[in-house]
Amino acid sequence: MASLKEIAAIAYDQVYPNADQNAAIQVEHFIQTALTRYAFELFLTSKELKRVDGEWEIPDVLLREATLNIENNEADLSGLKIFTSFDGGKWISMVGDFGCDCGYIKHSVNLANILCNDEYDGNKKTYVPIGRKLKFPKGVHGNTVPIIYASSGEDVDGDIEVDDAIGDRVGEYLWKRFSGRIPEDRTQNSNTNV
Fold it and tell me: Which pTM value belongs to this model?
């Protein structure tokens, strides 16, 4: 297994074999692109797992923790680099602490209106994601709230070793994106998966 930085460096050397420090595109561009593409490849893998198994979780390597300040029963998400493409709003793994005393339940706008005065929540509060905010229609337990969310991949450690299949797809993507060409078929069998 190789790290994302190694995959990016190999792709860079293949696309720009004689590049120097004055080149228009530096290896850092490849590394940053590899990080975000890695997150996307994990997303595609999760979609395949959902199709095959019916269930899936956000890959642990993309999960991040943050503490959000609450003002007027709202939390601003604009400072977080969130990968919102996961189905069913699963980009939010958890709002609140791991304990059951001050938990939060996700609602949609319609569900929050329908269950406005319902007491089934017990001690739980509700939250509704709207754009780059979380709204808490029944208030919050304090001035801040912890959250676990799916990162867009930009902050993934580039030294992380990645699965060979995903690493291969990231490397191929880098090659195609930066070279504008399809990799040479060295097998002579017209298979583009080199």
Answer: 0.69
